[in-house]
Design brief:
The complex is a heterodimer of chains A (466) and B (431). Chain A is globular and about 65 Å long. Chain A has 466 residues and is α+β, with helices and mostly antiparallel strands. Chain A is built from 17 helices and 19 strands. The model of chain A has no long low-confidence stretch (mean pLDDT 95). The longest helix of chain A has 20 residues. In chain A, helix 14 runs antiparallel to helix 15. Chain B is of the alpha/beta class. Chain B contains 27 helices and eleven strands. In chain B, helix 15 packs across helix 27. The radius of gyration of chain B is 21 Å and the shape is globular. The chains are: A alpha+beta (466), B alpha/beta (431). The interface between A and B is large, with 44 and 28 residues.
Chain lengths: 466, 431
Amino acid sequence: MEGASVRKDLLSLLGKEKVLTEELDLMYYSYDSSFLTQLKPETPWAVVLPASTADVQAVMKYAYDHQINVVPRGAGTGETGGSVALNGGIVLDLSNFNEIVEIDQKNMQVIVRPGVIHAELNKRLAEYNLFFPPDPGSSQMCTVGGMVANNASGLRAVKYGCTEQYVLGLEIVLPNGDLIYAGGIKARTLKNVSGLNLTKLMVGSEGVLGVITQIRLRCWPKPKARGIVMAVFDSLDDAPATVLEIYQAGIMPSGMEILDSSAISAVNMYKPEINLPDAEAILLFEVDGNPPSVDYEGNVIQEVAGRRARTVEWSTEPKRMAQLWEGRSVTATAAARVRADGTRVFAGEDISVPLSKVADTLRAIRKLADKYGIKVVNYGHIGDGNVHTAPVINTSIPEEVEQVKKLVHEIHLLAIELNGSTTGEHGVGAVRRPYAEMEHGLAVEYMKKVKQAFDDKGIMNPNKLF
Amino acid sequence: MDFKNLPPVKEQIMKCVRCGKCRSVCPVFAELRYESAAPRGHVFMVQMLRDGVVKPSEEVSKRLTHCLMCENCSANCPSGIDIHELNAAARSYIEQKNPSIGKELLFDTLWTKPSLLNLSTSLMWGAQKAGLQKLARYTGLTKLLPGSLPQAEKILEAVPLRNARSMIPEINPARCEREYKIGYFLGCATDLLYPDIALAAIEVLTNNGCEVIVPRHSKCCGLPHIANGKLETAQSLAIHNCQIYNAYDFDYIITDCGSCSSALSAKNMHFLLGQTEHAQAGEIFAAKVMDLSKFLIDVLDISFPVNHNAKPITVTYHDPCHLANAQKIKDQPRELLRRIPGVKLAEMSDTNYCCGGSGTYSITHYQTSMKILDKKMAMIKLTGAETVATCCPSCTMQLNYGIRKHNMKCSVVHPIQLAREASKKKAVHSA
């Protein structure tokens, strides 16, 4: 079918308030944060802005009947091309479908539509002394729907885990327009082992099985106290060693983050007031809970980290804690600051390796970066072995673009070789799809069969994930 | 100006990774919710324009103007992109390719000549009795501006008969021992709509050891031109103002208007003149420019006579975008207010959330502007303040309209007006 007739049909189906059809307007949906779409943006045939589950059903029924690709999209902050219609079709921009339907304080859960922004949800939950623990660096930008679709996690995953641990139920529109509920049609339970676990299947499915239109999330009581230890190291190797020693001391911090020397410079350039000391590496440990336990854990971390660190700073002062945490949260994009004519590219940025191999990984990445002559900034969630590498290049120099492609390919291979994964939390999308068979072997064939069961016409976000 | 070779276009576009941080802080995106209104969307479109993927058309311009130029995106961009400069450069490029007679008349002719601008305001004063619509129809103004003029008429307040320029002498000697020689930059809106702000500033400055010169031939700061695709006109205005002020030996060049001080700042002068032969003149000029509130606190360290009988007033302070985002001046206006006897400062929840005015935006995009204003007024209402203080005449006009629109009982002032009242008895300069 032609794009023009799809646009015409959608207009008559949903009206002009909910459908973008002008070429210029559509171009704005040709990108996400990936290097892939920076190099080659792809304009969809149409963009639909649904305001209800019925709207989504109407679009899916139409798309199914006419065999048109549909790509769900949140805030478009992903780094894998996952929310871009790389093969034409309709983009469903769910970021306006953003109601917090119910905060069920008595049952420790919240029901939201997919477009709710993560930070806004937690702001509202705080009024009830609750919180939704996963804490992605893009908290202020990303949607909860996007987090569910990618099984996002972030800075506090080390203690609180990933999104999947909090999703209790989902309302899903299937490719043929059918509406199903995973986790029980009417259930409000915290525990539920009834039936095949379609909820877990949907979390992290990156839009290849259906469209998530409502999410029931488990909330946790908001911790009463918080503290941050900043440990400064002259040797990069001392950082992962310290992390293991903290675990061995019986402490489970709510966050354990690493910044290498380039990441430190980038943060200082973005927010000079944060004023991080120059060093080979900085570790940030967050502890949360009740005030006495926060003090105790803070003291143990200071003592253990102090054995290897040049300096250790302990802070419970809200302004300083917010500065340090924000500094770390924005490293992802602030990385570009380390080179005047440089751009941070999102590619090969999310490998996950066993804890015991973090030091080897960091060393190997530096060696690879030297091999290809690319400046890299390393940071990440060291507590769970999730290393973020930010190559910084001048994208207008074709040789650098080619070199960085080779570099990120080798980083992905490195992860697999070290018993790791090509992605810890950002997802696969289109950019890590080539590694699927290498990582999963025969299991990929069964993944395809699962997709076939949900999406017999193959219209849901095709050519992503595997 | 060569669009493709302007420093932000040449050096900054590629830095955008579309992380979306800008999208989360943009007041216009919060209302419109289309990616074409997101600042990263503007960066993307400027890139498409630079690369020739899209033509410099009015359709592209229409999308780029979904922007208040409030600089909240630039202030928050992790990659350090001056998104507002990219947007201004693109608007200007499109305007060059699609010149509009209306804009030329308004921004190149009327708004570059203070005498003509003053004449129009005087005409407006006369015409307000008969209603602006008649005048607008008579002068053809309705054809000049997009948006709805009858609605814009509501925003415009009663225009004073006499402008500041006609009431303030060129030379205003210090009323005590002279410490500083000040060049006062009289912005268009203060001059024509709020002359009392300038009168108050001159009074407080001269009482505190400043000789204040108000050069007769200074012109607009150029900000309306930058926002409306007239970069070259803004450039000529900057060159003119540099020539005028650099001819004196001022210690400081002070302005009461946050938008003016931002337009005259080193950063903006570099944007406008950095690649021209006037770059050095721009640097010399901008090095002396300082916003009034910053000067009163950081340089003069102003104090007020103790007054135990001062009437207590609750004041909330609205951060003008061009002061808070563009110049990071947030503390000094508050400190000035705190030093005024009787003032109790009650902060609103989101002090530097834009009021939606932004110069001409409230006229060109009335509906969106009003949605943004409504949010701001709700924040103000919650403080219970009887006075709203701000350092920008455009914000003043918009907030005054918000007060009328929401039937609120408070007034909008510049902190300098409260400072003048507080120093009526005798000003004490403790520097």
